[in-house]
Amino acid sequence: MSVAEKPAKRPIDKQALLAKYKAERDKRLRADGNAQYTRLEKQSAVAKQDPYTPVTPRAPKTDHVTFAFVGGGFAGLVAGARVKEAGVSSVRIIEKAGDFGGTWYWNRYPGAQCDTASMVYMPLLEETGHMPTEKYAHAPEILAQCQRIGRKFGLYDDALFHTEVTDIVWQADKHAWLIKTNRGDAFTAQFLGLGTGPLHIAKLPGIPGLESFKGHTFHTSRWDYAYTGGDPLGAPLDKLADKRVAIIGTGATSVQAVPHLAGMCKQLYVVQRTPSSVDVRANKPIDPDWFAGIATPGWQQRWLENFTANQAGGSASEDLVQDGWTDLSRRIRERIMTIPESERTPKAMWAAWEDSDFEKMEEIRARAEQVVKDKDAAEKLKAWYRQLCKRPCFHDEYLDAFNKPRTTLIDTDGQGVERITEKGFVVQGKEYEVDCIIYASGFEVGTGFTARSGFDVEGRDGLKLSEAWAGGMRSKHGVHVHGFPNLFFSQPVQGANLISNVPHNLTEAGKTIGLLVKETLARGAKEVEVTEDAQKAWVDLLLTGPGRMIGMNDCTPGYYNNEGQPAGPEAKYAVGYPGGATAYFKYLDEWRSNGKFDGLEFR
Ligand code: NDP
User: Which atom of ligand 1 is least distant from the CA of 28?
Assistant: First the structure.
């Protein structure tokens, strides 16, 4: 059977499945939750420096800029572009990496690719005139798009790379932010944006003995091509032929990297704690003739809105993107529509959702069985949880990688690696000797904003952001925070909270930021700030929604559900607009365009 074909349906025994899901989950629950992980930067045995760009010496900056932005990923690029478009030339992006790109700067592992369709994932395609080459672009193309945005909007001119912010303090007398960095900078900015991203601190499993390994080792976000051979464009990893390699972790990263490692190593061990659900990818090149036909003015906005409408609380008569995400939502929606309107209670809708999910997951599990020839490995590659309990994966070569020579799945039965030794790793009492350990162990999630960004922000009257958000995030639109004038956040939470296409949230935040910088300057005002009442009203509105943990408590542990531990009181604020993403973007458009900027005070 071809991997793109759908396997035959089997009868579903819901009670047996629920019992299996519960048993698999219970096996994985650990009391230490997020504390089981350690930061890459804390481990001296695993290389952590930037392997891609040498650090260039430069003099510290002590000047003043109109707009500064912390983070040179999508958020900073789109905000910077909009502020430049608004006529502000003094724009400075501060970025800890050696170039723009954010996650796409660091993640250059072989096979790295976007899981959301390029047409909606890659920002500012229309403005930069770029046609994505594939339905799901590979990482080098996405990084190149970031660099293209940087060049097109002149964002390189004053960017500070390899620079980490250490302090941000509001200077009331100057109506500006004082920004200090680890490169000795101490400059001011009238307006400041923060877009540091959710997944930028590489983490390692806290496996005993991690420091003792004497072989070669690196994290997937610091891929060592000098050791493996090959390159981010997909050239074969030709230096591994005499190497025994272990890759620890089987999340979205590993699913993409393993097909490039399989068959190339003297021996490859893929070490699994929880299998990912791996659905059909069906990537294909984008046909320039087709693209020329659809790329009429406003095309990307139409595609964005269509994807979101098919995804998150909208209604769309057509599905332009047609991928795993829209398929998932369509199936659930169709199932719910079979319930007579008068009987659509939350319980009935949940049951319909669950039925649709059982069906999908059975299909995904059957795919493992049909593709993987080793029956034992196929069984262990089956994911026993609802599809949205963990990050859904889509790939057409991952499962087949286990049919490649010298490629072995080491399943840890949900317990993880027991120990790292000088020579390799231990699973269920057995030591496997290897030359190289690759950690595909993901990024820190579940810590507060200030812990993850590495700095606090001291706002008006000495108020610290860590204090303002001690009991949970408070904002209007996820962008404006009372007590922090001229400061804008760019991230999804308390806005659309559209997780399947994070860039849509960021491009909308970028528009808001550009507009507000322009508006404040045009009014001759020095400051713009959300009022306390407006912020409270927005948060109160958010709390009328269904909340974020719905259906997650009984999920297998992972970063979607705080590793299975009870979420703290602040979790209830990590939500989006109750009407859904489409309704939010519509509301926001109106809020921006009526000129009133309801809830903000210009002074
Ligand atoms: P994840 O956090 O998703 O995966 C980490 C892996 O390490 C899991 O399989 C985890 O197992 C495993 N692990 C953790 N501790 C141990 C241990 N002690 N022993 C053995 N295994 C262990 O990280 P990824 O880098 O894969 O993905 C992070 C996120 O980045 C994704 O969820 C996605 O949002 C994003 N991403 C997006 C892509 C895209 O296409 N846009 C591509 C790749 C990543 P367990 O599951 O049991 O915790």
Answer: 47
Taking CA atoms only, the protein residue closest to ligand 1 atom 15 is: 205
Q: Per-residue pLDDT averaged across 161-177, rounded?
A: 97
Query: Looking at residues 25-39, what average pLDDT do you find?
Result: 91
Tens digits of residue pLDDT in 240-275: 999 999 999 999 999 999 999 999 999 999 999 999
Q: State the architecture of 31-49+204-276+390-439 in CATH terms.
A: 3-Layer(bba) Sandwich (3.50)
Residues sharing a CB contact under 8 Å with residue 219, sequence separation 6 or more, in sequence order: 40, 46, 47, 48, 202, 204, 438, 439, 440, 441
Q: Whose CA is nearest to atom 21 of ligand 1?
A: 249
Reported pTM = 0.95
CA angle 221, 225, 231 (to 5 degrees): 95
Q: Which residues contact 512 (CB under 8 A, 6 or more apart)?
A: 477, 479, 488, 588, 592
Confidence tier at 562 by pLDDT (50, 70, 90)? confident
Would the CB of 556 count as within 6 Å of ligand 1?
Answer: no
Is 3.40.50.300 the CATH classification of the domain at 64-201+445-602? Answer: no
The number of the ligand 1 atom at minimal distance from the alpha carbon of 136 is 40
Terminal Cα distance for the chain, rounded: 67
For residues 164 and 146, the answer to whether their CB atoms sit within 8 Å is no
Three-state SS for 43? coil
Domain boundaries, the chain: 31-49+204-276+390-439, 64-201+445-602, 290-350
544 versus 45: the higher-pLDDT residue is 544
- In whole angstroms, what is the distance from residue 422 CA to residue 425 CA? 8
* Structure letter (DSSP) for residue 366: H
CB 577 within 8 A of CB 495: yes
Give the contacts of 183 (CB within 8 A, at least 6 positions apart). Answer: 58, 60, 160, 162, 163, 164
Q: What's the length of the chain?
A: 603
- Band (pLDDT 50/70/90 cuts) for residue 3 is very low
Q: pLDDT tens-digit profile of 369-379?
A: 999 999 999 99
Ligand 1 closest atom vs CA 563: 48
Q: pLDDT per residue over 121-130, tens digit each?
A: 999 999 999 9
